[in-house]
Amino acid sequence: MLNDIEIAQKSKMKKITEIAGSIGLSENDLELYGDNKAKIKYKTIESLNDKNQGQLILVSAITPTPAGEGKTTTSIGLSMAINKLGKSSIVAIREPSLGPVFGIKGGAAGGGYAQVLPMEDINLHFTGDMHAITSANNNLAALIDNSIYNGNPFQINPRTVTWRRVMDANDRALRNIVIGLGGKTQGVPREDGFDITPASEIMAILCLSNNLKELKEKIGNITVALNYDNIPVKVKDMELEGAITTLLKDALKPNLVQTIENTPAFVHGGPFANIAQGTSSILATKTALKLSDYVITEAGFGFDLGAEKFFDIVCPYGNFCPSAVVLVATVRAIKHHGGIKVKDLNEPNENAVKKGLLNLGKHLENIRKFGMKSVVAINKFHTDTDEELKIVEDYAKENGFEVAIVDYWEKGGNGGLNLAEKVINLTEGHICKHHKLYDWNWSVEDKVFKVASEIYGANKINFTKEAKKDLKYIKKFGFDKLPICIAKTQKSLSDDPKLLGRPKDFLVTVRRVLLASGAGFLIPVTGNIMRMPGLPKKPSALQIDIDNQGKIKGLF
After folding, report:
1. Sorting pLDDT into bands at 50, 70 and 90, what band is 106?
2. For the residues 517-529, what does the mean pLDDT come to?
3. What is the pTM of this model?
4. Region 418-429: what's the mean pLDDT?
5. 444-526 matches 129-246 in CATH topology
6. At what angle do helices 201-208 and 212-220 cross, to 10 degrees?
7. Of 281, 400, 466, 491, which one is least surrounded by beta carbons within 10 A?
8. What would the CATH number be for the domain defined by 444-526?
9. How do residues 472-501 score in pLDDT, each as one tens digit?
């Protein structure tokens, strides 16, 4: 059996100009990155403002296993299937980060016969967006430290600098560092650290900006430190927003590529859902909505993370109203929540499936809280038995949800035409009914408790002493009316990765409440979640290689 990269390399791509032509764009609308990748020009995006929008379909999932449940594969496959049914569809997904690519999950461009191409480029350097975001973040960090060193005109208290450096790699050794050592000419010594690039506020801002003007405004609103009078110092106070935005002038433009079946795809932005908002850029999604009948986008990890943030943060900032949700479930993940270890998931176990259904049930319950129509997509693996699949299918139907078993990995768009038909039927005559879970004007404590109790299943919230100190500062300067973007483990509905299934009446501990005033949200950090992941004992990088002709293997 061919693996993902072998399938991708055997596929025939069309020139990106031909893909653009299929959605009404010409070469003049593109900035070409070779034959198979392009960015959409700003003037083209502006010219689409008066066009009618298509319908937006959000793909989310149950609480995943470490390897993921095929959410991206399902998103790509569904878009291809809708195109096969004679409707126009574009899939809009995130750019992969080199952290997971070289870490545990491997590539993130779909899988099997439901991939976006060129797979190798997308998983590696692509059009340079990740590097631009990294450069923008780190240039700002350098400029802050330079200002402190050269007379400190903004009276920044070095102990209060919150702007950390980033890199697009899982590097636990850089989580906490000390900078400025080596004498007076090396800068002012202070504690610092690195986050992974997808956790940068610059990434969040880029993905929440509707245009270049808004990008610059949001960057100007970033809070980087306090001065000696304990007043926030923002990027615009230092008059640096223009310089930092300049580094992002191309990164903000959506990337156009194609699926393995030569249908259009936007791959743009890459915030993680366990530490950020977890979905592709507003600008890419909006552009796609003007160019097709249906746009399929995904929200990272489980519905409790990516989808909640999509509805409560991304939709208000992007003025989106999704028509439906597709919830991806797998027999493997359900068995895992039924108590089966990852290494044993390939073995049939109907009792474990029945026991693990409670996790699926909680996610179905959560979908209803947002007033959304939904279809459950059971992503079929070759190890699933018919009996196991039927247990999951019957459970979803008993709970009032449409169900479709899909196999996009093996069959491409043909592996889920039934799901595509259900989605189209479900969205006919769509009237927007989506609502936010909470009011942004509520107190921070009430917003956190609302999400933790309603979506996770907690019955109590504990704010540590340091988190309470953060809240005092946030309230003092009027940032408490921002939405919340909770950083939480993706492995459990709770903040404890070991609590599988559907835990109830547990305590959620908020360690910090970080301010992302540029992006426009607060980040309550729960449990032991970290904004710089580490590599596993045997990282995916061990499988990656390149031959003398430049052909890559082992990427996934």
Report:
1. low
2. 96
3. 0.96
4. 95
5. no
6. 150
7. 400
8. 3.10.410.10
9. 999 999 999 999 999 999 999 999 999 999
CA of 239: how far to CAs of 146, 212, 390, 477, in Å? Answer: 14, 17, 61, 21
* Six-digit token string for 74: 């399902």
Phi, psi of 328 (to 5 degrees): -85, 125
If one counts every other C-beta atom within 10 angstroms of the C-beta of residue 187, the result is 18
Q: What integer pLDDT is reported at residue 514 of this predicted model?
A: 96
- Strand-strand pairing, 38-40 and 30-32: antiparallel
Q: Which of 409, 449, 463, 556 is catalytic?
A: 409
Domain borders along the chain are: 4-125+253-426, 129-246, 444-526
The pLDDT value recorded for residue 1 is 81
The DSSP bridge partners found for residue 379 are 406
Q: With contact defined as beta carbons under 8 Å apart, do 141 and 164 qualify?
A: yes
Position 433 scores a pLDDT of 79
Of 39, 71, 216, 531, which residue is the catalytic one?
71
Based on the residue annotation, tell me whether 362 is a catalytic residue of this protein. no
- Residues 37, 39, 94, 309: which is the catalytic one? 94
Task: Give catalytic status of residue 381 as yes or no.
Answer: yes
Q: Which of 44, 72, 73, 259 is catalytic?
A: 73
Annotated active-site residue in 37, 39, 105, 165: 105
Chain Cα centroid distance, residue 81 = 23
256 pLDDT more than 90: yes
307 alpha-carbon distance from chain centroid: 10
- Looking at the predicted structure, is the pLDDT value of residue 51 above 90? yes
Q: Could you tell me if 113 and 260 are in contact, meaning their C-beta atoms sit under 8 angstroms apart?
A: yes
CB atoms within 10 A of CB 398: 10
Tell me what pLDDT residue 66 has.
Answer: 84
The reply to whether 273 belongs to the active site is yes
- Which residue among the candidates 163, 381, 463, 521 is catalytic per the annotation? 381
Residue of 126, 301, 310, 311 marked active site: 301
Per CATH, the number for 4-125+253-426 is 3.40.50.300
pLDDT at 322 over 80: yes
Asked if 73 is an active-site residue, the reply is yes
Determine the straight-line distance between the first and last CA of the chain, rounded to whole angstroms.
Answer: 13
- What's the CATH code, domain 129-246? 3.30.1510.10
Indicate if 286 belongs to the active site.
no
Helix (H, G, I), strand (E, B) or coil at 98: helix
Rounded alpha-carbon distances, angstroms, from residue 85 to 54, 88, 325, 510:
16, 9, 19, 47
Percent of the chain with pLDDT over 70: 99
Average pLDDT, the chain: 96
Give dist(CA 381, CA 337) in Å, integer: 17
How many angstroms separate the CA atoms of 30 and 24, rounded?
12
